[in-house]
Specification:
- By secondary structure, this protein is of the alpha+beta class.
- Helix content is about 25%, strand content about 20%.
- It folds into two domains: about 180 residues, Orthogonal Bundle (Lysozyme), CATH 1.10.530; about 120 residues, Glucose Permease (Domain IIA).
- The chain is built from eight helices and 15 strands.
- α5 packs across α6.
- The longest helix is centred in the middle third of the chain and has 24 residues.
- The protein is elongated.
- The termini are far apart.
Amino acid sequence: MVLPALVAASGVAGFLILTGGLAPDGADDAASRPDGASGVNAAYGPWLRKAAGGCAVLTPSVLAAQIDQLSGWRNDPKEQGKAGIADFTETDWRRWGKDEDGNGRSSPLDEPDAIMALGRQDCSLATKVTELRTDGTVSGDLVDLTLAAYAVGEDAVATAGRVPAAARTYLSEVRTRFARYASFDHEDTGDGAEQPASAVLSAPVSTLTVTSPFGSRKHPLTGVTKLHTGVDFGAPQGAQVSAARQGRVVFAALTKAYGNRIVIDHGTIGGKRLQTTYSHLSALQVTAGQTVRTGAPIGRVGSTGLSTGPHLHFEVVYGGYYTDPQPWLATSR
């Protein structure tokens, strides 16, 4: 099993003092053992959903799969100063642990405490890798990047620019467990309806001539086949680029791969955050922190970064994930 890049604990004895020494009363009874249906007792479902609710990237099934890979949902004593179902060290528990179940102690041996602490740790990592992806330092799926950062650290992810080789085994082991916990992603969700993409965005350039659609493709410069995370709209050098919706500019700077890049945060739609990005620009006409209205000029079409010619690479990020921009555009057909 690939171990996370965590600071080593000062020792098992000291950690047992911190955590209360023994597992909670009843930790070995049927109520706390995994069941045969999903691999974890249904009583943990609300805690998984609450922990995953801390950020858009996580889902309950991701957390459950991660715990399964780390410990198999066992609170058995472990070597190397780790404890509980989420394999926390003393040092990291002091940073992430809290008394979530209200029993008067904060302990990695209390399953709700451990689930919530892992959620906080993962959400912190998700925030960091989201920032790295926003500024073009890394590329890839945010869940994969978050799990990789847990396994080997965010610095290793930033250096690699993607999921590092050292994290791939851990990532694969967690991903193979997603399906068995999928039911936790769909419980207690209110009306159960997902907010569909709708035509809420205006055209970022005057003519939406698609030169490369959203989806898997071979990059024309690198030759690597992977997800093309947006749509390329062909446009002449210097053509005006406009904000597709009112919002706040959260990034506007030169990056290695995307060239001059702008990211606008439009707030939430259907409970999920919506962002749009504009890349390979020849000029930036806004700065980070600036509020813009729909249709406001923000930049000019160019070919900066990894680009074969003037065009706008336009992305829609919804709930932390890239999605096909075309259904969101009011003028798309």
